[in-house]
Design brief:
The structure is a homodimer of 659-residue chains. Chain A has 659 residues and is of the alpha+beta class. Chain A has 5 domains: 186 residues, Molybdenum Cofactor Biosythetic Enzyme, Chain A (3-Layer(aba) Sandwich), CATH 3.40.980.10; 60 residues, Molybdopterin biosynthesis moea protein, domain 2; 81 residues, Beta Complex (Molybdopterin biosynthesis moeA protein, domain 3), CATH 2.170.190.11; 73 residues, MoeA, C-terminal, domain IV (Beta-clip); 203 residues, 3-Layer(aba) Sandwich (D-Maltodextrin-Binding Protein, domain 2). Helices cover 24% and strands 27% of the residues of chain A. The first copy, chain A, has 17 helices and 38 strands. In chain A, the strands form 11 sheets. In chain A, strands 29, 30, 31, 32, 35, 36, 37 and 38 form an 8-stranded mixed beta sheet that branches. In chain A, α12 links the parallel β33 and β34. In chain A, α3 runs parallel beside α6 and α4 packs across α5. The longest helix of chain A is centred in the middle third of the chain and has 20 residues. The N terminus of chain A is likely disordered. At the A-B interface, β11, α2, β15, α3 and α6 of A face β11, α2, β15, α3 and α6 of B.
C-alpha cells in the first residue's frame, strides 16, 4: 500500500497524451525513429521515409503499344475499304511486338488485326506487304517516352504506405531500393507472481499470461517488432533490472501489469526510480490504471540527461490491456513509422438499451451492430474489463465522453467500427433465448458467406427486441401455462397485430443439473424446498424461468421456500458453471449444458425452441441462407449429435400471424 | 501468328469465372486447400479452419476482481458511515489482490479504497481489522468461474480471420494451438525475351520486369506465398518445362505474359499442351488477354486424370496485370484460405467529365476522388494499360458494365474505393495547371496529416473545374494580353459573381527548352518559323499555350508557320521529354523541366503562378494546413532550391473577388 504515495489520480485522456507527447518531443522522439534502406521486394506495407522521384522515364523509349506493324502515318492518308494502301516490308512497314522500340523512320503502329497480309506463304512468318484499309493518325498505338512517368517526376510522396502497385511504379521508374521508416522495437514485460505461461495448466489463483500475446500481435499489426519477455514475479529489484535491460535495446517498454495501486503493484515505483513518472491513472474505462513515463531522465535539470525511453504501464485486465494498446501504443507506433494514426470507420446507429456511465471517465462501450429493416442498431455487450469475449464479439466501440452520465435507449450513437460495414450488412441479428445450436447455425451460415450474431436476452427479451425492431430473429421457448403450447400466446400478446412467422427449430430436454454422483441426493423439483439444497436460477423473462415458475406453481412450491431462487444467471452454461464450481447444488437447464461441464442431469421436461421471425425478414434476401441451413442434412446431423436435442420441429412453420 | 488458332474470343467476366470455378470444383479445388496447426503466437491474420471451443472456463475459479478484502457479505448488512462494521483479520476479512481466488468462506470483495484499516502499524502490511461503511452485495467484485467463457462454449467460429484479441480469447479459454487454413503457394513466371531484371539498366526495347514484384506483393497481402521464377525467354520448350516444374510444387501458376495473340505469345499453347485451356480472352478493360486453364487434364475422359493445377495467363501491361490479380487471383486466394473475398468500400460520387467506353467490355475506370463543398466528385485518370501511375494515383475504380457506351459528365457513379474514406475527407483537390512545386506542397501537407491530390487540366481547365464545384484550388498562370497581369481577368470572366481569393504562389521562368549544346542553333521564338525546327506545343487552355500565343502574335508569327504547332503535350515534363527523345527540337516550358532532363534552356519570360481559391474553401478547416505551409520557411527553402523559381508572391493575397 505504500505505493499509493506515488499514485497520481486519474487525469483526462487528452491531458495524459499531452504530457506524454511533450516528454517524447523533448526527448526527440515525437518523430519517426529512423530510416532503413530496403529492396523493393521487402518493402510491402512499409512507409516511405523520403519522396520517391523517377530515376528514369517510363517508358524510357518510344514503345510500340500493340503487336502489329510500324508505319509512317502519312503513307496511310486516304486509305479505305475500297482503296486500301499497300505498304511493302521492310521499308514501309515493319512487324513489331508490343514493347518493341518504334523504328526511327516510323511514327505509328497499326494493330495486326487491322491489316491484311500480302504474299504470306504458310511457312513464312513475314508477308511481302500489308494492306491497310483506314488512315492511321500520327503516334497512334505508340507509348511515348515518359507517357507514364518522366524522369525526376514525383512517383510517391514520403509518408506513403507501400501497396503492391506502388512497388511496380517505383520499379518502372528505375528504382530498386528505397528508404522507409524502420520498425519500432517494443519490449513487453509480463509481471505478476500469479501469472503462468500459456504452456502450463493454471491452478486456482494462477492466471494464464496472454496479454503479452495480444500486445505483441497488436504491435505486429501496427508495424512494430515485439519482444515478449519471460514472466517476472512481483519483485521490485528484478523488475527494475529487467526494465533497464529491455530499455537498452528497445524503443518502447510495456510493463504488464502492476500498474494499479495494490500492495504488489511495483510498476509506478519502477518507472519513478528509473526515470520520470508522467501519468499514473487515466480517466478511461476500461483501462484507467495506465502508467506513462520516460526512463533515464532522473533529477531536475533537463539537459543533464540522455534522451529517455518511453515506458507504458499497461493494466492487467485483458480488455484494459488491449484498449491501452489501441489508445496509447497504436498512435505512438503510427508516429514512429511515419503514418497517420488508424481511423476506424464510423457508423451512426440507434442504441438498444439504456447504459449508465461513470461521469468522471471516458468509457469505451463495446457493442454489436446490425441493420434491421433499414436502421442500424447497436446492442451493448458486457462491460467487464476481464471479459475479453466482449472485445472479440464487439463490432465497434461507442465513446461515452467524461461528463456524460449515460445513454438512453433509442439514442443515436456514433460507433467506431471493428467489423467492416459490408460484413455488418450481411449480419443476421438473433436476440432472445440463447441456445448452443445457434453457435452451430452461425458456423453453417459462415460457410454460406452469411453472418449470425446472437445475444442472450432471454425469450421474452427477444420478443421485445423484435417489437422494438432491433433483431431479425428471436429464439424463444416460452411455455403457455393455459394451453401447454410454446410461444404462440406470447407472440400474440407481445407482438399484437404484427406479421410474424413462428418457425420450429429444435426440441430440447430440460432438467436438473446436479453435481457428479448427486451428492445431495436430489430427485426432482420437490427437493428445491430442502434448506441444504442451494439452487441457482435463470433470469426473469427467460423461457427456463417461466418453465420453472409453471412447474413450481403446479407443485405448490413458493419461491421463498427455494434457497437461491433470487440468484440469477443469464445462460444455461452460466448456471451449469455455478453448479460445477460448487456455488450452487442444482439448476434447471438443458442437458447439453450438463454434459459440457461433466455434470449429471435429471431429465424432467421436453420443450420446443422456435425461431420467431417477422414476415418481412422471413422473406428478405438476408434471411434466406438461414432458411437453407435449416434444410441442410449436415446441420441436422450436427444438431442431433448434441446431447438432449432433436430436430423434429426444424424448419416447420408452426404458425403465421397475419397483421 | 499461328497461336491465334487457339485464341478464344473475349467472353464476359462472369462466364470466364464460371468456367474456371467449374474446373476448380471438378478438381476438388473450390475449397480451402488444407489445414495447418499453428501456435497462437504465429496465427495473427490467419483464418480458423475449425471452430474454436473453450477448453476451460475463464476465469477457471472464482477470482477476486479488485485489490481489497474478501468478506462474507451478510456481515456487512446495515453498515453505514454512522454505524460502520468492523471485521477482524484473518477470519472475517482477508486481504486479496486482484486475481486471487476467493476464499471458500467468503462471498464478496470490498475494494481497498472503501475500507479503513484498524490497528495498522507503519511497518506492518496487515491491519488487525477493517472498518466498512456500507453494505456489500453477495458476489460483489468477484469474477465467477466462467464469467467470460464457460468450458465447451464456442470461442470463435471457423472461417474467422484472427485478430490480436482473438488470440487472447483462445489463450484465456485454455487453447495453445489452433487449426488454420494453410497459405496457398503461387508460382509467378515472368516470360518475354524483352524483359530484363530490376537490377539491370534496360536499353531501348528492353523492359524492366516488375509485374512479378507487384503480383508477389499482392499474393502476400492476400494471404498466399509467392515464388518469383527467373525471367524466361519466349521459347515454347523452356516455357513448358518451367510451367511443369512450377506446377509440381505450387497450388497456382501465373504466367506473365505472352497471353495475347502475338507471334511470340506462347502462353495459350503451353496451357493447351500441358492441360486444358478454359478461357482465352475476357471482356474486361484493361486486362482482356487473360488465360485461364487447368494443367494436367489432357484428353476427353474426366476420370482418367489426376486433379489439375490451375494456371492463369496474366497480361503483360502493368495495369492489366495488377487488375488481373484483383479480379482472378484475389477471389481464388480468398476461397483457398477460407475467407470472404475482399469487398472494397463503396462511395457514390459525381463524375467530372464524359467518358466513352467500349460497349463490349466491362471497363475498370480509375478515378481520383475528393469532397468539394459537401459533394463527392470523381475525376477520371489515364486509361492506358501501361500507365501504372494511374493505378497508384487512383482513389478507386468505377466499373462501367459491358453494354454501356460510356458515362456522361455530372452522372452519379459508384466507386469501389482504394483510399479509405477518412483519407479522402481530408484531401484537397487541386486541379488546373500543374507545377512541380505542387508535388512539394503535397509533401509538406502530408507531414501535417493533410493530403493534396492534383491533376493537370491546364490553367483554364482549373477555373472551369472551380466553376463546376469540382476542386478546392486551381493553379493558374494565365496572362491577360490587355493588362499584362496574370489570372485576374480570367477569374472575372470565367467565375463571374463568385467570391474568390487569388493567392500568390510562385514566380517562374518560362523559356525555350532545347537539346544540349543547342544543335539547331535556336535563339528565340523567331526560330520557330524555321522549317527544320520541330516544335512541340502545350494543350489549348494551358497558361503556357496562352503565353506562346500572346508572344507569337506580338512577333507576327502565325501558327501554321510553326512546324509541330498542333502536336500537344499536357505537361512541362511532357514537352521536355519530347525534346529529350528527339521527337521535337524545342518547346516553351519552365526552366525546371529542362533541368530535370539535362536539357538546355533559353530564358524568355517571368510569370506568376497563383492559387485560385473560392472564398468558402479558403476559410474552410480543410484548407488551413495549405495556408500554413505557404508560411513555412522550410517550404520556401525547398521551392527556392528548384531552378527557375522564386517565392516572391508566395502567400500574398493578390485580389479578393466579392460576389
Amino acid at each position: 500500500m505504500e505505493d499509493t504515495s506515488i499514485y497520481l489520480h486519474d487525469i483526462p485522456l487528452e491531458q495524459a497524451w499531452e504530457r506524454f507527447r511533450q516528454a517524447l518531443a523533448q526527448a526527440g522522439l515525437w518523430h519517426p525513429l529512423g530510416k532503413e534502406r530496403l529492396p523493393l521486394d521487402r518493402a510491402l506495407g512499409r512507409i516511405t521515409a523520403e519522396p520517391v522521384w523517377a530515376a528514369r522515364s517510363s517508358p524510357h523509349y518510344h514503345a510500340c503499344a500493340m503487336d502489329g506493324y510500324a508505319i509512317r502515318s502519312e503513307a496511310t492518308a486516304g486509305a479505305s475499304d475500297r482503296q486500301p494502301r499497300e505498304l511493302k516490308l521492310p521499308d514501309e512497314a515493319c512487324y513489331v511486338d508490343t514493347g518493341d522500340p518504334l523504328p526511327d523512320w516510323a511514327d505509328a503502329v497499326i494493330p495486326i488485326e487491322k491489316v491484311e497480309a500480302v504474299g504470306l506463304e504458310t511457312a513464312a512468318r513475314t508477308p511481302e506487304a500489308i494492306r491497310i484499309f483506314q488512315p492511321v493518325t500520327p503516334w497512334a498505338n505508340v507509348r511515348f517516352m515518359g507517357e507514364d512517368m518522366v524522369a525526376t517526376e514525383l512517383v510517391l510522396p514520403a509518408g506513403h504506405a507501400l501497396r503492391p502497385v506502388d512497388l511496380g511504379a517505383i520499379a518502372a521508374s528505375g528504382g530498386r531500393w528505397l528508404e522507409v521508416w524502420r520498425r519500432p522495437r517494443v519490449a513487453i514485460l509480463p509481471t505478476g507472481s500469479e501469472l503462468v505461461p500459456l504452456e502450463e495448466e493454471p491452478s486456482a489463483g494462477e492466471i494464464t499470461e496472454f496479454n503479452s500475446l495480444v500486445l505483441a500481435a497488436q504491435i505486429e499489426a501496427w508495424g512494430g517488432e515485439a519482444t515478449r519477455f519471460p514472466i517476472l514475479p512481483d519483485d521490485l529489484g528484478r523488475l527494475k533490472q529487467a526494465v533497464a535491460q529491455a530499455a537498452a535495446d528497445h524503443d518502447l517498454v510495456l510493463i504488464n501489469a502492476g500498474s494499479s495501486a495494490g500492495s504488489e503493484d511495483f510498476t509506478a515505483r519502477v518507472v519513478a526510480e528509473l526515470g520520470e513518472l508522467l501519468v499514473h491513472g487515466v480517466a478511461v474505462r476500461p483501462g484507467h490504471p495506465v502508467i506513462l513515463g520516460m526512463l533515464g531522465r532522473q533529477g531536475a535539470s533537463e539537459e543533464a540527461f540522455p534522451p529517455g525511453r518511453p515506458v507504458i504501464g499497461v493494466p492487467g485486465y485483458p480488455v484494459s490491456a488491449a484498449l491501452t494498446g489501441e489508445i496509447f501504443v497504436e498512435p505512438l507506433l503510427a508516429r514512429w513509422t511515419g503514418r497517420a494514426p488508424r481511423e476506424p470507420e464510423q457508423l451512426e446507429a440507434t442504441l438498444t438499451r439504456k447504459v449508465h456511465s461513470s461521469a468522471g471517465d471516458l468509457e469505451y462501450l463495446r457493442v454489436t451492430v446490425g441493420r434491421v429493416g433499414g436502421r442500424w442498431v447497436a446492442a451493448p455487450l458486457s462491460r467487464g474489463a476481464g471479459v475479453i469475449t466482449s472485445l472479440v464479439r464487439a463490432d465497434g466501440l461507442i465513446h461515452i465522453p467524461a461528463g456524460v452520465q449515460g445513454l438512453t435507449a433509442g439514442e443515436q450513437v456514433t460507433i467506431r467500427l471493428y467489423t467492416p460495414r459490408a460484413e455488418l450488412e450481411r449480419t443476421i441479428l438473433a436476440l432472445g433465448s440463447h441456445d448452443l445450436t445457434l453457435d452451430l447455425l452461425a458456423q453453417f451460415l459462415a460457410a454460406r458467406g452469411s453472418r449470425l450474431t446472437s445475444a442472450n436476452l432471454g425469450s421474452l427479451g427477444g420478443l421485445l427486441a423484435l417489437r422494438r425492431r432491433e433483431a431479425h430473429v428471436a429464439g424463444s421457448h416460452l411455455l403457455d401455462p393455459e394451453s401447454g403450447e410454446f410461444n404462440l400466446a406470447y407472440v400474440e400478446r407481445y407482438l399484437p397485430g404484427e406479421a410474424i412467422v413462428v418457425l420450429g427449430f429444435v426440441g430440447r430436454e430440460q432438467g436438473l443439473i446436479i453435481q457428479p454422483g448427486n451428492p445431495k441426493q436430489i430427485q426432482g423439483l420437490e427437493d428445491l424446498r430442502r434448506p441444504d439444497v442451494r439452487f441457482i436460477n435463470r433470469q426473469r423473462g427467460s423461457g427456463t424461468r417461466l418453465l420453472l415458475d409453471y412447474h413450481l406453481d403446479r407443485l405448490g412450491i413458493t419461491p421463498d421456500s427455494v434457497e437461491g431462487f433470487n440468484r440469477e444467471e443469464f445462460t444455461h452454461l452460466g448456471v451449469a458453471a455455478a453448479v460445477a464450481s460448487g456455488r450452487a447444488d442444482t439448476a434447471l437447464a438443458i442437458r447439453a449444458a450438463a454434459t459440457a461441464l461433466d455434470l449429471d442431469f435429471i431429465p424432467l421436461f421436453k420443450e420446443r425452441y422456435d425461431l420467431i421471425i417477422p414476415q418481412a425478414h422471413y422473406e428478405s434476401r438476408k434471411l434466406q441462407p438461414l432458411l437453407q441451413v435449416l434444410e441442410d442434412q449436415d446441420f441436422h446431423q450436427a444438431v442431433r449429435s448434441l446431447p438432449g436435442y432433436d430436430i423434429e420441429p426444424m424448419g416447420r412453420v408452426i404458425h403465421i400471424f397475419a397483421p
